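can u do me a favor
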């Protein structure tokens, strides 16, 4: 990674005073280059020489899995053919989040399959004879974390229609499709105040947004890359 970042022939994307070239987490690698025609050969040579990936036995496998997504212009035939990348316009996944060259598509691209996944999971759990408290625990342990991760990672507004769909699915699950006996808002109240502590996903979302705002305006000890990028965009 250090060799890639230090290579003068690999042109990344500038954000603030930093040039971003690689995003790394475990075995996931996301390379960001601004001049792929000249940067990619240097990038792939550096990866091979530094053995970031074992190209002896794994080159074909990794090439088949590697995707290239253009943000400002189409992928060149040279890039796709030479490195055997799969060219995609949207839907490239990094750390569970689907990316797109159009930021307006990001919410639908990620939340539509998430809502379907949550519905499928709740339908499966709904077949078990759980008490109301047991079902609330299912929402706490399965629905809230799945929603929370995507909501936390996407830097954009979640439409109210998404929350209404979640309310409908959770309400249907809690009352087995029957008429609700208690409103969701009351169930979300803290147990000390007579509620059952059902997760309020709207408050989860607001908490994530407030944390981002606090980090953005933090004046010292803030070394998070996305804040530099945001500040540069807002200053344009």
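np, heres the sequence
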């Amino acid at each position: 990674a250090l060799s890639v970042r230090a290579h003068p022939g690999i042109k990344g994307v500038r954000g603030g005073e930093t040039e971003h070239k690689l995003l790394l987490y475990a075995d996931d690698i996301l390379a960001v280059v601004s001049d792929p025609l000249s940067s990619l050969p240097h990038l792939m040579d550096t990866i091979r020489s530094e053995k970031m990936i074992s190209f002896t036995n794994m080159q074909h496998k990794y090439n088949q899995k590697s995707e290239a997504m253009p943000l400002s212009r189409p992928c060149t035939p040279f890039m796709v053919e030479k490195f055997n990348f799969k060219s995609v316009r949207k839907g490239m996944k990094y750390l569970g989040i689907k990316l797109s060259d159009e930021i307006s598509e990001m919410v639908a691209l990620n939340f539509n399959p998430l809502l379907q996944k949550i519905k499928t999971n709740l339908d499966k759990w709904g077949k078990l004879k759980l008490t109301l408290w047991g079902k609330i625990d299912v929402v706490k342990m399965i629905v809230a974390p799945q929603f929370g991760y995507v909501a936390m990672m996407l830097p954009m507004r979640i439409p109210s229609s998404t929350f209404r769909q979640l309310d409908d699915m959770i309400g249907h699950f809690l009352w087995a499709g029957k008429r609700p006996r208690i409103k969701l808002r009351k169930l979300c109240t803290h147990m000390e105040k007579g509620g059952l502590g059902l997760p309020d996903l709207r408050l989860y979302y607001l908490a994530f947004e407030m944390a981002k705002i606090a980090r953005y305006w933090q004046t010292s000890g803030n070394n998070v890359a996305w804040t530099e990028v945001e500040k540069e965009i807002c200053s344009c």
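The mean pLDDT is 83. hope that helps!!
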